[in-house]
Amino acid sequence: MLIPESDFKLISEKMGREPNTVEQGCFLNLWSEHCSYRSSGLLLKTLPTTGEDVIIGPGDDAAIVKLTDTLYLAIGMESHNHPSYVDPYNGAATGIGGIVRDIVSMGARPIALMDALYFGSPEIKKNQYLLEHVVRGIAGYGNCIGVPVVGGEVMFHNDYSGNPLVNVVCVGLLSKQHLITATAQHAGNSIILIGASTGRDGLGGASFASKDLSSESESERSSVQIGDPYTEKLLIEATLEAVHNGVVESCRDLGAAGLAGATSEMAAKGNLGMAIDLDQMPLREESMTPFEIMISESQERMVLEVKPENVGKVLLIADKYDLNASVIAKLTTTPNYTVHYNGEIVADIPIHLLSGGAPYTEQASIAPLKTSDISPPEIETGNLKGAILSVVSSPNIASKQWIYSQYDHEVQIQTVIKPGADSGLIRITPGVAIALSSGCNPLHTFHDPYTGTYGAVVENAMNLATIGAEPLCIVDCLNFGNPETKETYYQFKQAVIGLGDASKKLHTPVVGGNVSFYNESKEHNTTILPTPSLGMIGKLTNVEIEHLPHSTIQHKGETIILIGESKPELRGSEYYHILNTKAGSVPTVPENIEQILSSIRGLVQTGSVTTAHDISNGGLAAALCELITPTHGAEITLTTDKLTDTELLFSETYGRMIITTPEQTLDQLQNIPHTIIGTTTRKQELHIITNTEEITLQYKEIRQAAETLTKIMKE
User: Can you tell me which residues bind Mg(2+) 2 (predicted)?
Assistant: First the structure.
C-alpha cells in the first residue's frame, strides 16, 4: 500500500474496488498536502480574494489582475524548499522554472522575479554551501531565460538549518485577448504534451514535499527535478506563439504531481474526463513504468488543449523550436480519468475524486506556552555606537549585494529600480509601472503569528509607498512545520487570520499562493520559524521616473522627517535577537495605517520627497545607517522622555518611514504622527544625539560593518 490506510479505505469505497499501483501513485501525489491543501484549504477560503481589478483569483496556475484596460498581469508565488535542501542548485533552479511556466501557461510573458530566502546561520559551512548553490541555481536559471530578479529578501536563523526556504514570486504581462486558463473547454479536443521528454527525475516530488526532512533525505535525489533553462526558453517562446496564434484552448504547466496533476486538474476544472495514451509519451529513459511516467516531475513540459483541426499547427510550432510534441490524450464527456498503456487500461478513476476529492482536515490547534516576563536589557553607557554597528553587521541587516549581484536584473531593459532598495520597479508603458516587494519578519511571527503576519502585509505596503505605488494584490507562500502539531497549526491559523484582516484593512486581495507544511528537520531537531512570506504588487500611473524618491540621501541641507510613532516594541527585533532575549513587547501596527500609507503615497506623488526609506528590520538605527553615502551624511537628534535610547533606535514598530525633503512643512503630514529629526549634510558620516549620548559613525565604518555576508561567503 503506497497511500495512507485511511485514504486507501476511502478511495476503495468511492471507486467500489481497491486502487491499483498506478492509481495509488496518482492519489499519493494529488492527495498530498502539497497539492490538495487538505489541512489548510478551509482556512484559505476565509481570505479576501476578489476585487475590482481581480480577473482570476486562486485556483489556476497563476492569478490574473487588471493593469490597464488592455493589459493584464499574471502573478504567482511558489516554494521549492525540500528539493533545495537535498540538491540546492537544481532545487532552486527548478523552482524558478516552475513558477515561470505557471505564468506562461496563462498566456503571459514573464517580466520579473523576486526571491525570498531563509537559511540557517551563514557561519555554519553547510548553510554557506546551501546558500551559495541556491543563489547560483536562481541566477543560472533566471539569467539564462532572460527574466530579471528585481527584489527579494534573505533572512538567517538557526531554525532553518536542515530546512531552508526558497520562495519565488513571478510576474508576467499579457494582452487581454491572449488570456488562457487551465480549465478544459470542450470534449473531443486533443491534449498535446510539448517540451522536454519525460525521465525519472522528480519522481513523487509532491509527496516528497509533504513530509519532514531527515538525515536520509539527501538520498532522495530522484525526487528533485533537473532543470534545463535553454529548453525552458524555447518552451516559453513556443507556448506564447501558439497562444498568440489563437490555437490554444487551455494550458497547464506540468509541475507538482507531473502528468497526473496537470491533466486531471485541467479536465476536472472543465467538468470533463480525459483518456491518456502513455504510448505516445516522449521518454528519455528506457523501461519506464506507467507509475513512473504518471508521477515524474521532469521539467520544461506543458500540456495544451487544442482543437483537432489545429493540432498540425501546434506540432509545426514545436518543430520550429526543436521541442518534443505529441498528442497524448483526448478530452471526454465521461468524467473519468483513464490511462492506457500497451493496449491496456492501467488506471480508471472518477476525475473529481482524484482532483479535488481529498478530504479537508482542520487540525486541532493550541497556543504555545508563553515565556515568562523578562526584564528588557538596556545599552551600556558609552556603548551606543557599538550596539548600532552590531545590528548593521548582523547577516539579517547587512548588505545582500553578494546575492543580488549574481542576478541579471536589467535584462528586458524595463527595470527602473534595482535590487537593494525597498521595492523594485518595472516600467510597463511610458505612463504605467509596477512596483514589487516581498518578504516577512519570521522573528515577529514567531512571537505573535497574527500581528507578525498583519505587519508583513503593512511592511510590504510601506515598501511600495516609498515610491508612491498603490497596492494591487498579494500572493503568499505560507511556510510552517508539521500541521498535525497543535502548536504549529495554531501558528498557521493565526497567520492566515492576520493575513486576511490586513488585506481587508488595506483593500488588497490575496489572489494566489502556496502552503508549504512539514518544514522540519529530524537531522537538526528543528522546526522552522512560522514564515508567511508575501509578495505584493503595486501600480504607478503617470510615472515621472526622475521625480521618484531615492533610498539614500542625495542633497545637503534637506529636512529629515520621521513619519509614524515609535513605541517601546523590541520583542522579536534584530537587536534583541542578537542579545538572545525574548523580553519586551511585539511590534504592532498603528490603527490609522490606511491614513499613514495614503498620506505617504500622496506626498511622494507630489515630487517633493527626495529620499524615502521604510523602517523595518533593525529599526531606526539600521534605516539611518542605510541612508548614508560616500558623499552625503546626516545630523540627527533623537531626544524624548517617552523612550529609552534602545527603544528609540531599535524598536521595529510598523508603519514608520524616513523621508528627506527641501521643504520644512508638508500639508500631507498634518494628520499623521511625524517628527523632524535632523538635516542632511555633505559629510560622510552619521552624527546622532540621543537622550544620553552623542556619537558619530563614519560611512567607512558603516560600510565595513555591512559587508558581513560578503566576507563570510568569500572566505
Answer: 102, 253
